[in-house]
Amino acid sequence: MPKNIHTGPRAGRPGGLFRLVGPEGKDRTERGRDRTPHWGGRTVADAWLPEAVRLPARQDGGALRGGAPRAVWLTSESDPRAVSAWSVAADLAKSGRPAHLVWNPVSGEAVQLIPIVRAARALAGDAGGDAGGGGGAVGREGRVCAQIMVVGHARDPFTNTLLTGLDPIMRWLDAWGVARRWPAGPPLPIPASYEARRERRAWARGGHYGASQVPGEVRPDPGGIDVRRVTGTDTPLAPIPRPRPAPPEESPLSNGGPRKPLLTRKPATAAAVPQPVPASAR
Predict the structure, then answer these.
(1) Residue 177 domain-assigned?
(2) Vertex 171, ends 165 and 174: CA angle to 5°?
(3) Which regions in the chain score pLDDT beneath 70?
(4) Which of 3, 104, 173, 214 has the fewest CB atoms within 10 Å, i.e. is most exposed?
């Protein structure tokens, strides 16, 4: 009889699975026809995208803190016709800034570095969220917060390509409860995305976001992508967000420049003092 050998997280937690090893030592992992592990009849999504090649990073962003599930789309600022997903993933791992998944939308190649049940480190604030401690890393917020690094440029939206291999990624995110919506609206194109609103209220709802919409971030990617090519034609669209207005240079509330008084009314002139009339003029 084969015996169960536990090779993932604790039984009953997402991302774990049992390997069935036969008498000859052959791996007989049971995933079912849909390649999804089951715990006592309850279906649990894979922590690793089955269609992706694995390149496990040495360091992740730590434990997730709970909340609405999210997916954040970033771009590597490299040419997808000349650079492979494996090359980008290796660079991210070497620099200690791995995303969960690196995807080339031209070739369809996908490489995963971190299981989705752990936080990634590709966002600017994620360095403080290492496995040993706290930090205020926004990438740790949510039951999942999938960081997907797309091989491409923000100035040339990746939705202009064939999006080869997107469907398995979307089904994977669906299985983890990431709603097919964009609460902050479609990401802005460059250069407007540098001044995009990064509101906590929209972030708290969960769903899909561009890196330019993440609170506390300064990244402009992924640019002005067509969100309905990512999440489907029936995706509800929020209004296109407007960039934050810059304060006027001479405004009393601006940090720089001279301050003007809030009251600009001219001061009243003193009343004229009557002069005595000469006696000769009486």
Answers:
(1) yes
(2) 140
(3) 1-44, 127-136, 238-282
(4) 3
